[in-house]
Write a structure and sequence with these properties.
By secondary structure, the chain is mostly beta strands. The chain has strands spanning about 10, 20, 25, 35, 40-45. Keywords: 2Fe-2S, Iron, Iron-sulfur, Metal-binding.
């Protein structure tokens, strides 16, 4: 885990979530705070996630079986 002086690593994927080295606390617009102790946390940017602000892969295109 990075120390207080080391920057957090953030990976931005235009086709997916923002990946942040955890643990993280996310301050939401309604004043609540979402927390995750995971090693890497996927933050939803498409707002389709049922687990918002965390990504649940809802951004992926659905492929139907023929």
């Amino acid at each position: 885990m990075p120390s207080e002086r080391e920057p957090r690593r953030v990976v931005v994927d235009p086709a997916g979530p923002v990946l942040v080295d955890g643990p993280v606390e996310i301050a939401l617009p309604d004043g609540t705070v979402a927390r995750s102790d995971r090693f890497v946390v996927a933050i939803c940017t498409c707002r389709r996630s049922k687990r918002f602000p965390f990504c649940d892969t809802s951004h992926r295109e659905r492929v139907r079986d023929s």
